[in-house]
Specification:
With about 150 residues, the chain is α+β, with helices and mostly antiparallel strands. It has helices at about 35-45, 75-90, and strands at about 5-10, 15-20, 60, 70-75, 105-115, 125, 135-140.
Length: about 150
């Protein structure tokens, strides 16, 4: 069993690091995902796990399988409801860090367009040129201090 890297945990939420290559959720038998890794962790570390049902754990947001990052999970239905409301009301902030090749100005806005990758995997891919009536992706960026 993979040991999760827990960054914060209380009775309501669990925050962890998701390594690159590990899915947040999967239906593939035998494939470990963050949800099952964390449920196993919570079950093993609970004070009364013998004979009890698996712990409650709700996925609040996802990260693509190839990337690493921080995930927030709810440990109660009330926390899940509250966190989902925060997500829907833009009160839940997400920050992304990317490694790029080449030189960029110190700050700016990058606009690109997302299109469906065909036929497999059913995910989005970034196109270089604008495509009419496609979903736009806009990102503000700045360089991190050295």
């Amino acid at each position: 069993m993979q040991t999760p890297e827990i960054l914060y945990e209380d009775d309501q939420i669990l925050v962890c690091h998701k390594p690159a290559g590990v899915p947040v959720q999967t239906k593939k038998i035998g494939t470990q995902d963050m949800e099952s890794i964390l449920k196993n962790y919570l079950f093993i570390h609970s004070s009364h796990h013998a004979g009890h049902k698996p712990p409650y754990l709700a996925v609040i947001h996802r990260l693509d399988q190839p990337v690493s990052g921080i995930l927030v999970f709810a440990r109660t239905p009330a926390a899940a409801k509250n966190l989902n409301q925060q997500l829907q009301n833009d009160q839940f902030e997400k920050y992304y860090q990317a490694v790029v090749c080449g030189a960029l100005p110190d700050s700016g806005t990058l606009t690109d367009y997302l299109v469906k990758a065909a036929p497999t995997p059913p995910a989005s891919a970034v196109k270089i040129h604008p495509v009419p009536k496609k979903l736009s992706f806009r990102m503000k960026y700045w360089k991190l201090p050295k």
